[in-house]
Design brief:
The structure holds two protein chains of two kinds. Chain A is mainly alpha-helical. Chain A has one domain: ABC transporter involved in vitamin B12 uptake, BtuC (Orthogonal Bundle). In chain A, strands 1-4 form a two-stranded antiparallel sheet. In chain A, helix 3 packs antiparallel against helix 4 and helix 11 packs across helix 12. The longest helix of chain A has 27 residues. In chain A, 45% of the residues are buried. Chain B is mainly α. Chain B has one domain: ABC transporter involved in vitamin B12 uptake, BtuC. A two-stranded antiparallel ribbon of chain B has the order 1-2. The longest helix of chain B has 35 residues. Chain B is globular and about 60 Å long. Classes of the chains: A mainly alpha, B mainly alpha. The interface between A and B is large, with 35 and 38 residues.
Chain lengths: 328, 293
Amino acid sequence: MDAGLLRSAGFRAGIVLAVLALAAPFLLSGNRYIAFILGMTFINVLWASGMNLAYGYVGLMPLMFAGVAGIAAYAMIHLTRAAGWPFWLATPAASAFAAAVGVVLGLPSLRLKGFYFTLCSLVIQSVLTLAFIYFPAYTNGDTGISQVAPPEWFGGPLHGAAFDFVLAAAAVIGVALVALIVPSGLGQRFIAIREDDVLAEAVGIGITRYKILAFIIVSLYAAVGGCFYATYVGFVSPRAFDVLVSLNVWLMVAFGGRGTVLGPVIGAVILAPIPYLLQDLQGLRDILDGVLIVLVILAMPGGIYGELRRWRSRRARAAGRELAEQRA
Amino acid sequence: MSDATLLVLMSTVSTGLILGAIFSLVAAGVTIVYGCVWLPNASNGQFFLLAALAAWSFTASLGWGSAAAVVAVIALGVALSLLLERVLVRRLYDVPNRNIAYFVLTLGLTQIMSGIFSLTYGRWSDQFTLPPLLTGITMWGPFPMPNNRLAVLVISAVLLAALFWLLRRTRYGRALRAVFQNREAAALRGVDVHGVYRFSFVLGSVVIFMGGVLFALAYSFDLTVAWTMSVTAFAIMIVGGPGSVAGALVVGLVFGFTQAVVSIFASPTMATFSYLAAMLAMLLIKPTGLFNR
């Protein structure tokens, strides 16, 4: 009944947020440090939206997310450096490659359910991390690759507020794509698989096909974000793509609100800046992340946005009851 | 056979036995809790490290003997697992598909504990060594075996035997295995299912703690041992069959010998790599593992 109203309200909120996001790089361009945190937040918004598609809508928890981003970043760096490709050509190619690798690695595990899929993806992530460290021909091992060249942009290298703007645009497009997919037939099939895969299969949804499709989309999100990350930070190492990163992106989705378009955005905006604010205190960051994970699992499975919506609908119902009592 | 070959062989065998026994203990702790409560403890490596670090603190800072430290760590393990059960684990007992929630919950615990360790112990030292339980060396032909490691091996073997006896022969063990097999039927026959959950969580955690103390007694260690142990224990559980203690024992010994052999020819990291590969292969081919629970 009020789903249409909610959607239009969400739509207006989305437009406002998009305009804000696109304007923010110029509003905050005075302080490079703040602007950098903003740029990293946009990359994480993109990542969280992709993860949300898998975790929030299909019900998969792909912990090899960061590994796929890493494959794309290393492939992109290799293509631009060794083959001399421009960033804007290398990124789609590297992303397609990373998504293909992700699907090949993930394909056998897609028929496993719940915990076993998650464990499998964690193992694959660990193998990828070890591979990044122990095959230094492409990755330069633990030392990492520094001075990754920024993308070219109308003749010059992309930098400053223009780069932040490009990231904002990528984030807005990423979120908008999720918002388009969810109400579509594809999104509804994803949700059907999440809710009850046996039932979904029974009404003729090819589960494995749609899971693979979801997996490709998620891998592409991870990969594009990884390529932007590499050029924006200018430095990559295996640590930038380890399991903690996957878990952190998952946390943004779960903490913000899984299965909602705006929830992961909220999660990313709150959680992405934390590492840069607690820069020297890696241990404290780990503790904070861990506490939030425990909190999300035990106390707020809907995340911030989910709990907010529940609270609002409860309040609306209570107000309705009061009104009815007054009339009676 | 020349003395040199014999020496290498015997040292491989002794390392393999000690590592295998400790791996088996930790994996048994993980697999008991998974089989019974459906709780895959991803933070088992951190429990293991906590036990080792606590033993180090008791001996290095408080100046206790190793034997006293071992007893104190076991008491700490019981107290901590009871606390965790009450505060966190209990809340998810009746949730459907709770294994994934538990898995993520313990990943969160892992992060909390590794953060605490890197802020505290990580700043104090990067290599931790405990004073030996026994001093002296016994010669086995040409091979010098430290009495301390022999003691560790004997204690691990006794603990494993005790664990088997507990699960096979006692009332608690029978109740635990009944819940393993069918929770509803066990409840109908008058088994206090939640009580068994609590018992198995505490038992499993304490077994992991014992593994950590024994490892610390036999070898010096650093903070990365948590991650390696976590991967190893999960690999053993998956390959051996989730919930199968016999599987944990056999595969644990096999992995212990693998580690001992691979460490001679290549780095221990390659051994970890092979565990990951074995686990992945097992998950994809036969997720129920080699042994039935």
